[in-house]
Amino acid sequence: MANIVYIATSLDGYIADKDGGLDWLMSIPNPDNSDFGFAAFMEGIDALVMGRNTFETVVGFGQWPYEKPVYVVSQTMESIPESHAGKAFLIKGTPKEIVEALQGKGLNNLYIDGGRCIQGFMAEAMIDELIISTIPVVLGDGVPLFGSIPALQNYDLVSSEVLVNAIVKSHYKRSPR
User: Fold this and answer.
1) pTM here?
2) CATH number of residue 117's parent domain
3) pLDDT tens-place string over residues 68-79
4) Are strands 14-16 and 167-174 parallel, antiparallel or unpaired?
5) In 10 A of CB 8, how many CB atoms?
6) What burial letters (b/e) apply to 23-52, b meaning 16+ CB within 10 Å?
7) Could you give the number of structural domains in the chain?
8) 167-174 and 129-135: which strand pairing?
9) What are the two backbone dihedrals, phi and then psi, of residue 88, each rounded to the nearest 5 degrees?
10) Which of 1, 24, 136, 163 could form a disulfide with 108 if both were Cys (CB 3.0 to 4.6 A apart)?
11) Which domain holds residue 170?
12) Could you tell me which residues come within 8 angstroms of residue 139 by beta carbon, excluding any fewer than 6 positions away?
């Protein structure tokens, strides 16, 4: 069982620009159209847990990119758009309650996505792994990956690799120390 973040950030730690834009993610040439290991990562995932803003951004892409069930954490949404019924489901509660509910459905390896959602799980020390790809741009402002947490959390580096001679992808696991 693991709660895993797989995300890209700018050098200054933002996951979206100040307008919520993601165009900067494509600022590095990718001539081979590599997914940088994302498909392999998704093979080990049972479900995604994401915030409403991230869900709305993904819906705006047009083509739904996920084969796994997506659980949208929202206190304000009343229903999932009909176009995504059966693909995405609303869920409410604390990170602990959400994990317990999904584990009760046999969904144990969860991909946690979206700024506020990640920050909520981090605040409750419920992130087991972080896979962060750092894009060499400085945004100066935007949506930060991390927020305030009540106590220090230690992670051990599992691996680090340089992709397309520009992006640094680092994988960390929660340390028991």
Assistant:
1) 0.94
2) 3.40.430.10
3) 999 999 988 999
4) unpaired
5) 19
6) ebbeeeeeeeeeeeeeeeebeebbbbbbbb
7) 1
8) antiparallel
9) -130, 150
10) 1
11) 2-28+36-174
12) 10, 12, 14, 17, 18, 24
